Amino acid sequence: MLADQTKEEVRRLLLEDKKLKAIQYVGTTHKVSLRDAVRLVELVEQEVFPGVKPRRLSSGLPSIFYWAFGGVGTLLVGIAAYLFYSDQQSIRHYVPVDGVVIENRIDHEGMASPTIQYNWNGQDMLYYSRTSTNPPAFDQGEQVQVYVNPEDPTEIMVDSFVERFLAVVILGGIGAVFLGFTFLFAKIFS
Question: What is the mean pLDDT of the chain?
Answer without folding.
Answer: 88
